[in-house]
Amino acid sequence: MRRICLMLFALLSMLRMQGQEVIDSVAVVPNEVQPTFQLSDTWVTDSLHLPVLTRFGQMPYLSMYPYMCGGYPSWNLHEGLNVSLGASVFTQFGKHAYHGAGFTQDLSMMYATPLTKKLSFAVGGYMEQVSWAHDTYRDGGLNAVLSYRFDDHWEGYLYGQKSLVSKRIPLPLYGMTNIGDRIGAAVRYNVSPSFSIQVNVEKREMP
Asked: H or E element: which one contains 18?
């Protein structure tokens, strides 16, 4: 019996030594065979390079003084279909201002896609209804933007807009939807992720 116990003990010791050797051999892996992932290996996660648009999918502009001055709600498009719904109430102040409050409802849709690693394209349109001074006005349009990213600092854009108006809209309402047919180009220099300089040149025709 004692002889059998010694044999079992010797066998278990050999198995333990072999198991330790296997574990040690697995733990030591050369660094050169370990795969590494870098964000630069794929452009899919950062392939869409488009400017910030207005809620109607248009290239923004500064103002239509003296009828409207200020900014627009920004719209950062993502890849695929983008949809924006909006409603608002507005009024005018001043000597020749329209009386009462106005109400608007709008719908915008833009489809954005990367064409290459540096070239992106977006196309879509919008519709808006304005009720003001006992009358209703409807405005619609088609928009398209083509963007090219030269490097980390320089970007260029080509854009166009076609307005589809149901009837003549009062001039003070032109700035609300940036109405008119537009075709233009822009160049932007990104000084930092939070600061850039952009120059636009465009031709516009009012309905």
From this structure: helix 2-27
Residues 122-180: tens digit of each pLDDT: 999 999 888 887 788 888 899 999 999 999 899 999 999 998 876 677 766 666 667 78
The residues, any chain, with a CB within 8 Å of residue 157's CB and separated by 6 or more, are: 51, 59, 145, 146, 147, 148, 185, 186, 187, 188
Count Cβ atoms below 10 Å from residue 179 Cβ, excluding itself: 24
pTM: 0.68
Q: Would you say 175 and 64 are in contact if contact means Cβ atoms under 8 Å apart? A: yes
Residue spans of alpha helices (H) in 65-158:
none
Q: Calculate the CA dihedral of residues 5, 9, 12, 18 and round it to 10 degrees.
A: -150
- Alpha-carbon gap, residue 50 to 145, rounded angstroms: 8
Residues facing residue 21 across a β-bridge: none
DSSP label of 41: G
